[in-house]
Structures are given as C-alpha cells and as structure tokens.
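Supplementary Methods, section 5.1.

A reviewer requested that the exact input to the structure prediction be made available. We therefore reproduce it here, unchanged from the version used in the analyses.
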Amino acid sequence: MNSDKVTFFGSPTSAISSSVAVPQNYNRLLFSGTVPPLLNKDGKTTYERYGNTERQAIGILETLKADLKTKGLSLAMKMNQIIKVGLTPMPSSLIQRKIQ
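The structure derived from this sequence is encoded token-by-token as follows.
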C-alpha cells in the first residue's frame, strides 16, 4: 500500500468508506462503518438477524481480519489498535442468565 495519496475503500455508492489508507509517511489505516454480518435475513428481531453482543463483536472482528488480509496486513501485526464499536445491547434478562 505505497501511495502518496489517501485511498478510500468500499462501495462507491456508499456515503461511508469501509476503510481509508493515509499516505505512507503517516503509516495509518482507518476503518469506519463496519457493522455485524447478517446471520439470518428472516429473523424477526435484531438478535435473530445479527446475533447477541458477543456474536456481533466476533463478526465485526472477522470482517476486519479479512479486510486487513486483502491489504497484506493482519491482526497479529504490532499496531496501535483502538477499536470503538456500537453493538446492539443484550436485554438485561439475557445478561443475567449469562452471568448465573
């Protein structure tokens, strides 16, 4: 990914890029707009469609891992990783059952 210009990745029809590579002297790759994969298109609830919080987090990390691989990078590389995610919260009744 040697380039002197900012490179945007993702669907050209989307308002949000899936990731951005900043010129080499900055040595940065930024991701944005990564959402959990759809697990069940016929699910009636968010949890049925995308899974619980744990499954959503795993799905997002798997997506990031695959995207990094296409760029010759990996999660195993030493890098400053700051990951902020917004997931669908689990109902408190499910959280209580998981804790017990």
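DSSP finds three helices and three strands in the chain. These observations are discussed further in the main text.
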